[in-house]
Amino acid sequence: MKKKQREVEVIPFEYELTDEPITGMAGLPVIMAAAKALGLEELFDEHLSIKLRKRGYSEYELAMGVILTLLAGGENLEDAEMIRMDEVVSGGRFPHSTTVGDFLRRFDGEEIQRALVEVQDALSRSILEACGYSRLTLDMDATMIKAEGRKREGTGRSYNGVNGYQVLAVFAAEPGLVLATDFRPANVHPGNGAVKLLEHTLTVIPDGTSLHLRSDSACYNKEVIGCCERKGMTFTITADMTAPLVSRINALPESEWHELTSKEQVGQLYYQPVGWEQAYRYIVVRKKKGEDLFGAVYTYRAFVTNISRGKPAFLVKRHRRHANVENGIKELKSGLSLSAMPCLAYHANRAWFGLGSIAHNLYVGMKLIFLPARWARKTIKTIRFRLLSIGGVLVRHARRKILKIPRYHPWSRELIRLRDSIVTAR
Fold first, then answer.
1. Residue 24: which residues within 8 A CB-CB, separation 6 or more?
2. 117 — alpha (psi -120 to 50), left (phi > 0) or beta?
3. Residue 264, SS3 per DSSP
4. Tens-digit pLDDT profile for residues 147-191
5. What is the pLDDT of residues 354-385, one digit of tens each?
6. Are 137 and 174 in contact (CB under 8 A)?
7. Which DSSP helix (H) or strand (E) runs through 416?
8. Strand (E) positions, 158-294?
């Protein structure tokens, strides 16, 4: 029997090259305008001095080469060419990918790295002041960045055998800003440097803001607890289930346990670990695992807090929202493609990640300050798909430049309103 040939649908048009100024990233100039409206150019001019000569691109232009590449969806240095070759977006002035690589490799000292941190701090502070938060929840967590190959500098092997880098980060949960990061080898304990990073974070936050810290057990130590007490912060930190703590939990009478969910119960106790200055309130959640000869067998999870009031069920619900920090980490690693580092040099990769954090806060600031409230929880991928990736044609009329975008694109008018909002603010 003769086999029926499969019909192939013909593409209903041909492709043709043109010299007309066309772009597929009509929303990217709005990001550039938002950066200037938020004072990012002045911040780079003030804090960062890394160039060897005055001619050529400024530090701000070189930094924006990385920031715009990441916001546009680029994953490595070569992807900067996509923007450089786009006449509409670049305006004929955008650094070559090799120039961007040379720029990153100049971050070879702690002083230069600190300058980049100062830019991020000042940007975060200005966004927080503009938004006027009276309370903030700080989520601290660490994440791994796998390094492909063995030639990358500054990597380490984590507890599970993965070779790469580790980033300890502090997020402000309400706005979604990343307030501080520590980029280091993966073989460092996740809680190492937590106090120093937390103290640095507090310098970014406007005075008078009420603060609450949430963390997993990596920060379960008396040093972090002591820092929170000195700074007047409340906290909920997941506890290590040590033998003495489990023994105290097992001694709780049944009357102290109350239903949390259909499968969980919650209880509480005061306990002072060895070496700690005082006893603290522990909220414990238990879940039945099975039974043995002596009765029911439970698994326990607990967190420590200095909040003396409030029902345990409410505090459990609040502490469990710490899991949302994974969404912030996902924005950095997936939304901005920071799950892989592009350079062999450790200091260049550290600068790449630092600029990625600034890119993250830039788009968060743009959402919170210049876009309607319904955009506040949109991810960078959504912003990129709906606003940044609109097609357009640049025309000149009466000495004006006009970027024409599709009338019936579902988000065209939103992009125009965003542009007008930024121009009015400036």
1. 86, 389, 391
2. alpha
3. strand
4. 877 678 989 988 888 899 999 999 999 999 999 999 999 999 999
5. 999 999 999 999 999 999 999 999 999 999 99
6. yes
7. helix 412-425
8. 163-172, 177-185, 210-215, 234-238, 258-259, 264-271, 280-292
